[in-house]
Amino acid sequence: MTAGEHPRATVRRIVALASNPPSQIQPVGELTAAQTQVALVILAGLVALSVVAGGATWRIARNVVTIAHEGGHALVAIASGRTLTRILLHSDTSGVTVSKGRRDGPGMAATAFAGYATPPLLGLGAGALVAGGAVQTMLGLTIMVLLGTLVLIRNVFGVASVVLTGGIVAVVIAYGTPTVQYGFACFVTWFLIVGGLKTVLEVQRKRAGRRAADSDPDQLERLTGVPAGIFVAMYALIGLLSLIFSGNLLLSWPPLS
């Protein structure tokens, strides 16, 4: 936002840029536009991996994965006919989504399953949009999803986390060049997938240490009778397939020539 600019003007700027995006990625150095695009995909992946692998960076960035995780619970709860009560996000990067309805049955099982599956699937969807050249659409949808989640948040830390995340995306939309927007969109794609995979590994480690009796996989075991380890394996498979397909889309199907 420039000095003296009214917040509504900034919002209008973001909407206008999302619907009428700048032309295309600009070449960097001696690289062509297509080579720059591939370089951004790889660089964004390396940055996402470093953020997830780093202890301090992961403790902060993990909140974004938690937002996606709890948003997945919430979306499926609503879709299955349950009454969504609230979403809570905590400073230890954990979260809780509360809904009313039957305590068993397909709807409850689907709601419980959705959490760990959502971040990598969102990453796959983002990757498909980016690969198809719809970067601004992907960023605009991200803002819409965050706004929808914000309405359901019922604690201060959760509101702050969602607003901060949305603010970063809004700044990239409003002020980022096409090259910056593309690199950021690739980072978001990689981060959701790799970060989602790490949370699956984390929950399995806690389960192995008998410190996650109420984890999503364990709740699913009680709901369905299927061993919790099977659900952990399913989550890992979803994450790995999302990683493979997204990588193939971003590196093998560039919209630039």
Structure description:
The structure is a single chain. The protein is mostly helical and about 260 residues long. Helices cover about 75% and strands about 5% of the residues. The chain contains 9 helices and 2 strands, in the order αααββαααααα. The chain has helices at about 5-20, 35-55, 55-80, 105-130, 135-150, 155-175, 180-210, 215-225, 230-250; strands at about 85-90, 95-100. Strands 1-2 form a two-stranded antiparallel sheet. A hairpin with a 5-residue loop joins strand 1 and strand 2. The protein is globular. It starts with 6 loop residues before the first helix and ends in a 5-residue tail after the last helix.
List keywords for this structure.
257 residues, mainly alpha, two-stranded antiparallel sheet, 9 helices
Percentage of residues in DSSP E strands: 5-15%
The class by helix and strand makeup works out as mainly alpha
The residue ranges in which pLDDT falls below 50 over 5 or more consecutive positions are 17-23
Helix content: over 70%
| SSE string, helices as H and strands as E | HHHEEHHHHHH
Tell me the overall shape: globular
